[in-house]
Fold these 3 entries.
Entry 1:
Amino acid sequence: MLFTYDTELTLRAAGVLINSDRVDGDQLSDLAALDEYLDHFGWTGRRDHDAAELESVRRLRTRLARIWEAADDETRAVGHVNALLADTKASPWLTRHPEMPEWHLHLASIHDPLWQRMGAEMAMALADLIRAGELRRLKICAAPDCHAVLVDLSRNRSGKFCDTGNCGNRQHVAAYRERRSNK
């Protein structure tokens, strides 16, 4: 593990959120899809279950995508992360739950709007990544026909392909076939 469990989980959650609009259309098209995403990643606290909440999470998705797109420009990425931390009014506090007994940070009240809690947690996870000098772990899939994002948590930062569309296998099979056809 390169980062704390909650940081890695939150970075993955951010990547999945961004990819929910980059692969096979908008996969966050209704409240049921939002609930499924939130339940999958264990988001707790207030849920309004209305169109405004869904739209605010979609806006967060767009903001997070800008951070991935700026990953090659540290100053720009830091500006986006700082803006997100400020807009979410992040206020860290230590907590633990029966399902996750290790101490970890929460950055917003369970009563704050969903997008605000998610944004604060994701901004802090991204801040951890930046503080560790690991911003280059935020990547866009290297497959020519894919625009999905990924968090490369491999030890040597060698990940190039997302896990949304089997891109790595498709690229390796294509390269193999190309080599075989040149013999």
Entry 2:
Amino acid sequence: MSDKPVNRRAFVSTAGLAGAAAVLSACGNESATANCADGVAAEPIEWKMVTAWPRDFPGLGTGAARLADYIGRLSGGQMTVKLFAGNELVPPLEVFDAVSRGTADMGHSASYYWKGKAPAAQFFGSVPFGLTAQEMNAWLYRGGGLELWREVYAPHGLVPFPAGNSGTQMGGWFNREIRSLADIKGLKMRIPGIGGEILRRAGGTPVTLPASEIYTALQTGTIDATEWVGPWNDLALGLFNAARYYYFPGWQEPGSALEAMVNKAAWDALPSHLQAAVEVACQAVTTDMCAEFTWHNAVALKQLREEHDVELRAFPDEVMAHFQQLTREYLDEQSAADPMFARVHASYRDCLDMLRPFSAVSEQYLMNLREPG
């Protein structure tokens, strides 16, 4: 055996995709159709994928592009996915409708954008003070979350998949200090999903904006504050030039899952080996994105502090406690009014209750004991 060091992550990623591609592409070879469950010949398939992100935007835009690339490689070239970034085919916040009506076969976005169409969709993005990225994957892949997600999207002719996670986000950029609950009153902040509703209940005004409009809105005073993702993406948007204070923690998005949604008719038309290619590609992108955000957020935070003199601030305890209480009230109220919301809430809560005790005596406890750098 060679004594040369091996990059295990690169080896596993490359070998895993190569191995899966070898198996899946055999089904795309006409001479091998006898070995395929569907027994179909290899006919080229081209999908359109629309996204909510700017083209090549770090993590989000590049993650969507990687998903398209993985599908092509896993299919052995039988299937190609042409990517359209936000505003190239449809506006960023119209991805859901575009895929639902068949304008595009696939979309990449975040589910909390669609709360007006399916309130329970918000759970599959992130819930304030809820599941972390690792816990979110546990719920979706092992705790029944994905099955519920597909039930929520079924009336819209969509099949959803987890396709990335940006991890715990930051609290956001503010042009005024937050010293108490009084400073939330009248605050105009770009913040989607359940977090936006909590801000509204606390006296603020939530605004939903795509990435392309955030900087200008913050710089011109159209909004007073914004959360976006975390240091890596925030640095890319240059938000440090538009606001002075950078707050933590990202109470509104402790583990933000991204989604790939597929038009149901397009999905049903795929042979099983290409359906498998899509599923495996989504799982690979989820793993890649978690690792990518963990690393690059750390690098970018160091850069923001050392090169741009960004002021990091923690939210006051009273603000966090009030937001927690408002979150509980909101979830209970919505559950009482919407049976599907109640079912998803119950599953999410049960998963959190199951995972919390182990997290407390494993990662959470150990991280508090680690020697400071």
Entry 3:
Amino acid sequence: MNTKDITMMAMFAAIIGILGLFPPLILPFSPVPITAQTLGVMLAGSILGAKRGGGSALLVVALIAVGAPLLSGGRGGLGILLAPGGGYILAWPMAAFVIGFIINHAKNVTVIKAVIANLTGGVIVIHLSGILYFSWIADLPLTAAALSSLSFLPGDLAKATIAAFLSVKILQHSPFPFQNSSGVKR
């Protein structure tokens, strides 16, 4: 890992944090708010690749754990990660890694492939982790936790599509994604 990798990871961690400036949408039937931050996780994985994208999301989770108010609504702290919505946040590094892995292994990145990568990592991985964690922490049946998660799907589908369009355009016009210092594609 070189300085350029660390800089890009920090930059995307900042993007995820900046997306936390948008106020959360609180649902009356769920303790988990709807936020814009998963868009940043999808962009990090899509643009930086598996390791750097996952690393940037891991950096955000670590900063949240130590109290940085990076989450939507100015929230942060270990208590947030231990709350019912913590499973969604804890899944961010794995989600970015999965998205980056899929994008890295695509022969050519198209919007459709990027949407599939974002849906796989940014929706399935995050929701699977979030639902299991929510069910466990709140002592709810899995079906009840899964039903409460359905309200996130329309927004997540929109975020996956937006991230796909943005990342494909950036990857088409940027010399740096997925290359190491010798210019070899990862």
